[in-house]
Write a structure and sequence with these properties.
Helix content: over 70%
Oligomer: single chain
Number of strands: 0
Largest sheet: none
Order of helices and strands: HHH
């Protein structure tokens, strides 16, 4: 039930952003699309990180713990991308030719 409400709120935010900022011009359309992508990324990443965990947001310490968990996940994901990129750069990308 909570996910359905969250999805409804996210879709409502996207619609409001698109209507308010998407009407004016190309700069505003780019900004609105960027904002929509950011909201979707945050929603999906929070869903992945805290899936199956009992989350309570009743105090400031709970919020700081949530922030620590989320940002450690985000930094680990960034580190994994960095490692994969480094390994891809180190590979031999020359074509094998017999001529």
């Amino acid at each position: 039930m909570g996910i359905g409400i969250a999805v409804f709120v996210i879709l409502g935010l996207i619609a409001i952003i698109w209507i308010m900022l998407g009407i004016k011009g190309i700069k505003q359309k780019f900004f609105s699309i960027l904002l929509i992508v950011l909201i979707l990324f945050l929603f999906l990443s929070f869903s992945i990180v805290f899936k199956g965990k009992d989350i309570s947001v009743h105090s400031v310490s709970d919020l700081t713990n949530m922030g620590k968990v989320y940002f450690s996940w985000f930094l680990n994901a960034f580190n994994n991308v960095k490692i994969v990129t480094t390994q891809a750069i180190k590979m031999n990308w020359e074509t094998n030719s017999t001529t």
